[in-house]
Design a protein that fits this description.
By secondary structure, the chain is of the alpha+beta class. It has one domain. The protein is built from 2 helices and 6 strands. The protein has a 6-stranded mixed beta sheet with strand order 1-2-3-4-5-6, sandwiched between helices. β2 and β3 form a beta hairpin. It is globular, with a radius of gyration of 12 Å.
Length: about 90
């Protein structure tokens, strides 16, 4: 696990081949950093600020496809660090 970015209430943590975007303490998006990997974004609305954080994260990886997934799957991803079972 490695801290990639920490700016205010947004944190990106790298777990192996995954980067997980946290807004405050909630995982809201994840990037599979393998070639051709997708960005997985929460389907749940949190706030306008969190939405802004997610949009910035997605725009920073323009060549990646984006898939909406449930908030519970993002929590499992962050908690278990065994993302291949959930996505």
């Amino acid at each position: 696990m490695r801290l990639v970015e920490n700016k205010g209430n947004i944190v990106i943590i790298e777990f192996g081949t995954w980067q997980v975007l946290f807004s405050y303490e909630t995982p809201v998006a994840a990037l599979d950093i393998n070639p051709g990997g997708k960005i997985y974004e929460t389907a749940e609305y949190h706030s306008s600020t969190t939405s802004k954080h997610i949009r910035k994260f997605v725009r920073s990886h323009p060549s990646r496809d984006v898939e909406l997934i449930s908030q519970s799957r993002l929590h499992k991803l962050a908690d278990d660090q065994k993302v291949d079972r959930y996505i």
